[in-house]
Amino acid sequence: MKLTLKIWRQDNAKTKGKMIDYPIDGIEGDMSFLEMLDVLNEELVAKGEEPVEFDHDCREGICGSCSLQINGEPHGPDRLITTCQLHMRSFKDGDTITIEPFRAKAFPVVKDLIVDRGSFDRIQQAGGYVSVNTSGNTVDANAIPVNKQNADDSFAAATCIGCGACVAACKNASAMLFTSAKVSQYALLPQGQIEATERVQAMVRQMDEEGFGNCSNTGACEIECPKGISLENIARMNREYMSATSKG
Amino acid sequence: MGGIIKSSVARKFAMALSGLFLVFFLLQHFTINFTSVISPDIFNELSHFMGNNFVVQALLQPVLIFGVIFHFIMGFILEIQNRNARGVGYKNYNGNANSSWMSRNMIYSGAVILAFLGLHFYDFWFPEISHKYIHGLPEDPTRYYEETIVKFKDLWRVILYVVSFIFLMLHLLHGFASSFQSVGFNNKYSKGLQGFTKAFAIIIPLGFIFIALFHYINQL
Ligand code: SF4
Ligand code: FES
């Protein structure tokens, strides 16, 4: 396959970046998208040019590192996969592919396609934990009965890998899907009840402080989320938040 | 606008509640307008009641005006905040791949509705205020029907009316269903409720358009 890549290049957080065209040849349908970029980078290095920097780690859709806006969509055109799970067979010979970093004020570009998603970590730190007594009399988690539906919903929310595609896709750069998944995962379990009131308020406060936008229910996040995190989580977070606020 | 509106979730909640309130008002407005097609007498009677009842005028009307102003000011504030939240824009943004045009353009459909409200106030509300309070004219419970239908004599006004209600339809197609999600209602009934909100969003504006065309054609 012969392709034209239009890639965002930016030296560091302070400089302005721009799109640069890279023609590339010999791409096979069985290559993953990141392998295709590896091929490009080997060519660039051989020519003595700076390789294109992008985030990746597990390359199997579980770590949430990879984060590319491909042809106007986070993680590219396919559904329920991350960028590292996207294969070149999703493209045709002669295609032009635009590759940009995930865009949000709260995700500043570090270099080229790498963005700083520390804002997600800070939302998590604000309340995404449970306090467990580990002084020797810890109750076995399996000894606490949990309603099956709640257990399943909590598990589904916990599959969020914190990739940030929800923010990247949202026209408002809102982080509600991520935050609501993190709130829901605890809100649905008995272990999460102790800090429930404080948790949702603290996480929403942090989300707002980081400068993410307001949710207007376009639903783009749910469609683009590689883990299929449902909008039901956002509705749940809204309920949790309003009831927490009324309790003070 | 109070401390609670400082949070994004609360703003969303407030936007939804004011929107739901306006939807309710719209239904009431439509019901009364529709009687103008059926019987001028009923229309006159209801309009007279709405225009002179103490509860409607002194309590409900200020709430309505507050609701409208709140909804649009909040809408603009949210839009500005949301644009800021992106920072550097995408060169390629394929919004159609994951969301509806309506949901992404509420600010534009809303702006058209706001402009229409300007015309609506100029046509009906200001003359009403001037009739009642500036000129202090005596109340004539049969004047409403005539005063209303003359407005539908001009083709340009009817066209503006139709266009505005198409934008209202687009606004409601996203907004009505969306407000339930915002107040936290998302469960096994949501699918059915969505069907209802979509039907409402299409039927009510079409109804308003029908009324305008009805009076226009009748006066040709
Ligand atoms: S909710 Fe989905 S899109 Fe958002 S961070 Fe989690 S896994 Fe990624
Ligand atoms: S590299 Fe780990 S999810 Fe893609």
Automatic annotation (TrEMBL), chain A:
Gene3D superfamilies xref list: 3.10.20.30, Alpha-helical ferredoxin
Keywords noted in UniProt: 2Fe-2S, 3Fe-4S, 4Fe-4S, Iron, Iron-sulfur, Metal-binding, Oxidoreductase
Names of required cofactors: [4Fe-4S] cluster; [2Fe-2S] cluster; [3Fe-4S] cluster
Annotated coiled-coil segments of the chain: none
Molecular functions (GO terms): 2 iron, 2 sulfur cluster binding; 3 iron, 4 sulfur cluster binding; 4 iron, 4 sulfur cluster binding; electron transfer activity; metal ion binding; succinate dehydrogenase (quinone) activity
EC main group: oxidoreductase
Domain 4Fe-4S ferredoxin-type positions: 151-181
Domain 2Fe-2S ferredoxin-type stretches: 1-103
Catalytic activity from the UniProt record: a menaquinone + succinate = a menaquinol + fumarate
Top-level division of the source organism's lineage: Bacteria
UniProt cross-references to InterPro entries, sorted A to Z: 2Fe-2S_ferredoxin-like_sf, 2Fe-2S_ferredoxin-type, 2Fe2S_fd_BS, 4Fe4S_Fe-S-bd, Beta-grasp_dom_sf, Helical_ferredxn, SDH/FRD_Iron-Sulfur, Succ_DH/fum_Rdtase_Fe-S
One GO-annotated biological process of the protein: respiratory electron transport chain
Keyword Transmembrane helix appears in the UniProt entry: no
Cofactor remark from the record: Binds 1 [4Fe-4S] cluster. Binds 1 [2Fe-2S] cluster.
Bilayer-spanning residue ranges: none
EC number from the UniProt entry: 1.3.5.1
SUPFAM superfamilies to which the protein is assigned, alphabetical: 2Fe-2S ferredoxin-like, alpha-helical ferredoxin
PANTHER family: SUCCINATE DEHYDROGENASE, SUCCINATE DEHYDROGENASE IRON-SULFUR PROTEIN
Family: Belongs to the succinate dehydrogenase/fumarate reductase iron-sulfur protein family.
Name of protein: Fumarate reductase iron-sulfur subunit
The organism of origin for this protein: Mesonia algae
Automatic annotation (TrEMBL), chain B:
Record's keyword annotation contains RNA-binding: no
Superkingdom, taxonomy of origin: Bacteria
Example of a GO cellular component annotation carried by this entry: membrane
TM stretches of this protein: 59-80, 101-122, 158-178, 199-217
Keywords linked to the UniProt accession: Membrane, Transmembrane, Transmembrane helix
The protein, known as: Succinate dehydrogenase / fumarate reductase cytochrome b subunit
Taxonomic classification: Bacteria, Pseudomonadati, Bacteroidota, Flavobacteriia, Flavobacteriales
